[in-house]
Amino acid sequence: MSHTPPKDHAGAKLGMWLFLFTELLLFGGLFLLYGAYFARYPREFAAAGREMHLGFGTVNTIILITSSLMAAMAVTAIQRSGRRLAVYLLGGTVLCGAIFLFNKYLEWSAEFSRGIYPGSPLLATVPPGESVFYSLYYVTVGLHGLHVLIGGALLTVVAVRVGRGTIHVGDFAWLENGALYWHLVDLVWIFIFPLYYLVL
């Protein structure tokens, strides 16, 4: 009986790593596509990149890095039987995710008001390379935003389970896997930020 939890925990963690690998393949494919088109339209990508809101991108980068740190600290807290602290840290992580999405809403609202959105009349008049840049931007960032939303929902469920004592020092696979998923969300953004906001 005493050996069952470690086996379950190891299996759950392995399953999560395999799932994260498929997610990396998904975003990796988008990044490779970006690289292929960047090689074809370097000037157009640079011109479109200068239209991005660097301020929003920078703030969101700081927010996600902070949230990832809190998710890691929540795992450490539960390992030390700090259930209440873990709940607070998870709440902070989810709050950061909500702020990230709100900032993204403000940024996209600004882009839409300037006529920069898929299928807009403005993008129909710009060079093909710039149109490709914005299309890749909306697909990649939109998909990432969906992952932020899913990750936030997952960590909310985890926080509730921690608060109820279902997740504890002897069984915290849910928390650890939720944190791993959130780290993926952070990692993907670390690639998105320079590709779309700092492109030269």
What keywords describe this structure?
single chain; 200 residues; mainly alpha; 6 helices
Brief rundown of the structure:
The chain has 6 helices and no strands. It is mainly alpha-helical.
Number of contiguous helices = 6
Helical residue percent? over 70%
**What is the distance, rounded to the nearest whole angstrom, between the alpha carbons of the first and last residues?**
58 Å
Please tell me how large the radius of gyration is: 19 Å
Structural class: mainly alpha
Strand elements, count = 0
User: How would a textbook summarize the main sheet?
Assistant: none
What general outline do the C-alpha atoms trace? elongated
Strand content range: under 5%
What oligomeric state do the depicted chains represent? single chain
Question: Please, what is the average pLDDT?
Answer: 91
Spans of at least 5 consecutive residues whose pLDDT stays below 50 are: 1-7
Order of helices and strands: HHHHHH
